[in-house]
Request: fold
Amino acid sequence: MENILDYTLEELSIWMKENGESAFRANQVMTWIYKEVFNFEDMKNIPKALQEKLKNSLYIGIPEIVEKYESKIDGTQKLLLGFKDGNIIESVIMKYKHGNSICISTQVGCRMGCKFCASTLNGRVRDLTAGEILSQIIVAQSLIGERISNVVLMGSGEPLDNYDNVIKFLKLVNAEYGLNIGQRHITLSTCGLVPKIYDLADKDYSITLAISLHAVSDEKRRAIMPIANKYSIDEILEACRYYIEKTGRRITFEYSLVSGVNDDKEDAKALGKLLKGLLCHVNLIPVNEIKENTLKRPSKKTILDFEEILKNQGIEVTVRREMGSDINAACGQLRRKFLAT
Reply:
């Protein structure tokens, strides 16, 4: 059986015709799903015969909330979501004054091997389908009873390692008949799969591209990010220039500050020099400490000094506000803890 959430309206209309039904039924079914009716038999204007056809061929792939944690500090909610095949992923709902944001996963696990990320410790299990990526937002909205207005593809997995499903997800999430979340409200984070950055640029989307940089030299980057053995910083920056030229969109560079690794003043100066002239913004992220490695976050003074040096070089920079620190809201931590029990 196939997950109906993987279908576009056009694809479901074709399915209807192939199954002897009128194409307009597709829009009716989609409307019910996005009104959070997740059983075909509860769709009141759908004939019983069609309900049976749907039940025999398709399912509405809404994951189960296996566990839910809510921060007492800032109201951040972290969800462990379970799919039919028993796999578990994580999503994080963050409430801001400007609206609700969600950080979603694109794969079960990850094979990129970044040393500071808990998602990658057990490797990649499988890709998520477009509908499974989308379902995380549907579950979140149903849970909080409010609209999600901003989406970040920065949970478990490397989005560009699941390129085709992520591209279809972007189409689904933007569809007027569905969640209708504008591309400018979506951020896609990648560790730097250079060929796919070029492919994404050619789509000419209005999403924000975020690059996980985390080091100013290839040598330092290779020590914490295995992908650096394949693509150099120069190659990534060249792809970024192409992306900016094609889309006109500003790129965000994510830089996890690790004490004694990439956080001294010379690193800050080198980062400023590296990014000078690029239409970009730097997001400084004090590293999340996990028990499986020895990486430590810098002192507050070191973080502020790093930020100041970048600002003095004309680089737009912010320090990421930590959300849900009391519920292990960082990527991969809760899934790993759950699997270990």
The chain has eleven helices and 14 strands.
